[in-house]
Amino acid sequence: MNKLKQVDELLKKGQPIHEAGINSWAFLKKEALEILNRLEELNVFILGGDVYVLSYDFFKPNYDNWYCNRFSNETDIEFTKRSVKTAKDFIMNYNIVDTEASQIFFAFVLDEFKND
Q1: pLDDT the model gives residue 114
Q2: Taking every annotated instance into account, which residue ranges of this chain make up the domain Immunity protein (predicted)?
Q3: What is the DSSP string of 27-89?
Q4: Dihedrals φ, ψ of 95, to 5°?
């Protein structure tokens, strides 16, 4: 299976957040960390991400986010590892207060990549 299809299959394991105006999927903390491990294996750059709240069956952004810019001297592998680490650190350290009425989800901004 090519890289694009593999990434697409991974992302589709999340919750669609199209109703929030975003053509992507979001993940609970544990799922997000697992997806990041797989994205790292596929050498996909994580440019950043956003935090969403699922409240009464509707996703809305809470405007928390992170980003990771590539250094000019960084190799693809170095940037992949650093961008995944940045995402993992953000997610692991994010203070989550889930209630019966709301849950926190994370969505990724991925770099466009060559289908290799």
Answers
A1: 52
A2: 18-109
A3: E-HHHHHHHHHHHHHTT--EEEEEEEEEETTEEEEEEEEEE-PPPTT--HHHHHHHHHHHHHH
A4: -80, 105
Burial class (CB in 10 A: 0-12, 13-18, 19+), 82: middle
Q: What is the mean pLDDT of residues 105-110?
A: 96
What are the structural domains, with CATH classification, of the chain? 3-108 (3.30.190)
The C-alpha atoms of residue 90 and residue 88 are separated, in whole angstroms, by 5
pLDDT tens for 53-102 read: 999 889 999 999 999 999 999 999 999 999 999 999 999 999 988 777 78
Task: Of 91, 86, 96, give the one whose Cα is nearest residue 106.
Answer: 91
Measured at the CA of 72, the angle between CA 41 and CA 109, to 5 degrees, comes to 45
Note the pTM of the prediction, 2 decimals: 0.92
Overall average pLDDT of the 48-52 stretch: 97
- Give Cα 9 to chain centroid, integer Å: 14
The whole-angstrom separation of Cα 51 and Cα 30 is 14
